[in-house]
User: Fold these one by one.
Assistant:
Number 1:
Amino acid sequence: MHAPHAPAGHDAGRPGLVPVAHHLAHVLSRTGLVRELEVDVLDAPGRRLARDVSAAIAVPPWDNSAMDGYAVHHADVADASPEHPVTLRIVADLPAGSALDPALGPGEAARIMTGAPLPSASDAVVQLEHTDRTDPVAPLADTVTVLRAPTPGMHVRRAGEDRRPGDLLVPAGTLVTGPVLAALVSAGVTRVWLRERPRVTVISTGDELAAPGAPLRRGAIPDSNSLLLAQLVREAGGELQGVRRVRDDAAEVRARVLGATAQCGARPHVILLTGGVSQGAFDPVKQAFAGSDRVRFVSVAMQPGKPQAFGRFGEPPDHGLGDPAGPERDGALVFGLPGNPVSAWVSFHVFVRPALLTMAGAPDHVVTPPRLRAVVETGWRTPGGRDQYLPARIRPAGPGDPGEAGGLLVSPAAALGSRSNLVASLALANGYAIVPTADQAARGGAPVAPGDVVDVVLTSLEPARA
């Protein structure tokens, strides 16, 4: 199972708080793979390969020309130069896609276009610019004069030089992108084994939530969490089974959870709840799972995102929410995230996204994103006692910026720092900065200052706006 990278000083913090690395390790230890299925290669984009794929044919499938020019016998033109030109008789014209394989006798050549199969009798290509026939669309002439000698094999792409039949083409766990699809098709692959997309139901809770665009009564806010998490699920390769909004009512939460479980049946899936997991008097998610020790509620040593719920839930015969019979991995993977939007965003990236990628068979280096080092451009305060995960704007350093040119700079996405309610400022975040508890203690609780160097993780490849 994937071993998460623990931040420095991850055992530090307040008593009773679970270190971030420990909670992530627990999540991944209970996360299994979704099933694999065989599909047509054209249906593969956006999914991950379940098995290694080998080349079915050579790439390229035949020797072909890398230039517009003339296929020749190298021996005929080995001494060609402007002072000693060599004139050859043209016996064939070979556009790309031609199936012809003309015989070339001594002193003979064939005009050939880029990508056309090389005549079996030829061992070099003279590019047009090195002849007296430089116009590729001119009518075919009877002869061509070579003004510069090629080297043996010049401008020839050999059959199988990229991949030979049976060579490993793409390893299991690879996401099928445009370039991967092109490689598969070019190597003659027609069927591949893929992982299903992890199926996810998003349930946001709260009496204060209103549908996006609906008039707001006093005390109500637009439900941005369900839309936020739904899009993050898609970006992580998940398949949405439904997006639901429920009141702060434990019975309604129970009904939605049971409905999501019934919809997916025995197939592995995820139920992603937001809100109602803290210590409030009306937190419905805690009430919904009361009496179950398979969905547990913990306080994680991170800011934002301290309250977390995680476990597995399977529908028992009495349709209640008690512990079902069956093996440890039975049932849906359940995440309960905090209701504040920034907390939900951070929690998704740190815990949920790695689980979805693990279910889909992603390799370790994808499940655990790389941490980069960035110079602080605009400082911020830290919470003390918890590892900080700050939504941030991360950009390359340019001329006149602090740090080395080409290095990274980081600033808070929100002017008010890491407050968990600043959802509008998330639009500026393309990653997050990590300030471990130990680092906070080492600076004596002083704020992170311009010029400091911190770890950052990119959540988007699109550069942040300055």
Note: Residues 1-13, 315-329 have pLDDT under 50 and may be disordered.
Number 2:
Amino acid sequence: MPTESHPQPLLSIAGPTGSGKTHLAMLLAEAAQARNITVELISMDSALVYRGMDIGSAKPTPAERAAVTHHLIDILDPSEAYSAARFASDATRLVREIRERGNVPVIVGGTMLYWRAFAYGLSSLPPADPVIRARLDAQGKVLGWPAMHAELMERDPITAARLEPNDSQRIQRALEVVQSTGKPMSAWLAESPSEDGRAGSLIPSWLRLVSLEPSERAELHHNLESRFDGMLKAGLIDEVRSLRAHPGIHADLPAMRAVGYRQVWEFLEGQINAEQMRYKALAATRQLGKRQLTWLRAIEGRTVFNPFDANGLPAALQYCLDQISTIK
């Protein structure tokens, strides 16, 4: 978004999945309240927007949401679509409304495409083409997404090089762009005058980005494994079973492509067994965390804390508290 839209500094807490962003945000809101500052949280998460997707998205609990106002959670059914452009618009409106109430907005989440849209704006990529998208979906199911990735490598090697071979949603979009326009996505992005949030992009002056980044990836992986096993015990399979029974919800929806949900859906379809489901879900979660860290580490000017270091979380909390106290 343009700098002039946000003359006041704005705090954002980001990090890979499982790094403790929500925990830090809740601690911040509690500490701020002791200083008579009311924090309202704006979720920057592509799964939390959907109703009924509670366990697998690690959605804030009802108690957490009762204690601190959360925005952009449970605003859509899983059959509906949400976009980075819509997030940028919604978040900009919410920042203004929260400030008008005399409170402090804090953006929290790890969907970095949403971050890019909000912080820098999106390049003018062509709109989705439903016919081409449906055809690519069908091809992906028959050939497999690694084969589709190989096709993208021939058509748009720059984009393909930054995507995982099983990243179906982004591979599909990149192929859709090149097939509908004859021009690769990398060329569209290169021609955009806006920053894209990568490759050393500077943070806009009105944003304060706190990034929770583990120094050892093994620590994050261990946390992700424990968290997913906890989700299974909490009823993730039953949650997905309930979603599958909902009219209008199918496996190809963006909501059902979310990490964890996709793999449990495959298990319920009988395509994989329970052990394979757990393995694939953990692998996909680790890949997601890796992509998020890649995004974050390319952004210059962020303030980094290791959430698994003994002093990391207290230091992050103090920094965030100092930032919003100054803003207030």
Note: Residues 120 and 136 are 29 Å apart (CA to CA).
Number 3:
Amino acid sequence: MFVAGDKVLIVACADDPRAVGRTGRIVDQVPPGSLTAGRWTVAGIGLLIGPVLCHGHELRKTGPLIRTPQV
């Protein structure tokens, strides 16, 4: 299971095959539901690739939660 801010490696992505092999971060604050068909939102992949939706089995966690300072 992932949490918002986790760094992940995209090993497969039916949404956008260009994202495969790249790293990004999980955006979702809660586990995905029916709106996204159970897929996680991954952003920060690259300049020409927007956020993508990937199933959990298409992702591998590569780093810890990235904490952002609360203002």
Note: The two ends are 27 Å apart (CA to CA).
